[in-house]
Amino acid sequence: MGQTITLTASDGFKLGAYRADPAAPPKAAIVVIQEIFGVNSHIRNICDRLANKGYVAIAPAIFDHIEPDFQSGYSPDEVAVARKFVANPDWPAMLRDTQAAIDTVKDVGPVGVIGFCLGGSITYAAATKLSGLTAAVGYYGGAIVRFADDKPTVPTQLHFGEKDTGIPLADVETIKAKRPEVEVFIYPGAQHGFGCDERASYDKASSDLAWQRSLAFFSKKLK
């Protein structure tokens, strides 16, 4: 239901994005930040689901700096390739790209941001550094603990899996201690990537609950 568009970041870099618009007049906009697997079918599906809920949803292709239109599945070999993209992440560039997406949809109304995996970390950084946001929701962002001294300027909600081998519960407790104003949910038994129905780690019960909480949060905050 969406279309591919082009964004221009503040440094002049042009990148692709997937945008999905609701059938009725939108109630707000949400920027969707990818995992390390690009703006693939999972991320486009998230955009479509948000559009079905009445939001304009836009997913910037933040890996276009490295490989234009990179998309990946979730097999072990594909995961190994995708990891190379974040061996030395260019946070400023990814935040510029995120800001470009925010700026593109801010005429719609309030703008939220939601991100998964790498995108969860970018979402948290965006909540502390970028302009034009009203709310932020991050899923299993491994770098959030490194940014936890930075206070979000907008209401923020975070989701983590109890059994995430890449994000120790000690890290989640550190985030909770440093940022008591942030809503943090831990899903018993859930692994990294539990919200993606294309991954072996998909946990339907946890995913459904996290999605319900995310939508309720956006419904409340994006007014």
Automatic annotation (TrEMBL):
Classification via InterPro entries: AB_hydrolase_fold (IPR029058), Dienelactn_hydro (IPR002925), Dienelactone_hydrolase-like (IPR051049)
Coiled-coil portions: none
GO molecular function, one term: carboxymethylenebutenolidase activity
Hydrolase as UniProt keyword: yes
SUPFAM superfamilies on file: alpha/beta-Hydrolases
Residues spanning the membrane: none
Record flagged with keyword Hydrolase: yes
Highest taxon of the lineage: Bacteria
Enzyme superclass (EC): hydrolase
EC number: 3.1.1.45
Keywords: Hydrolase
Residue ranges occupied by any Dienelactone hydrolase domain in the UniProt entry: 16-220
Protein known as: Carboxymethylenebutenolidase
Species per Swiss-Prot/TrEMBL record: Afipia massiliensis
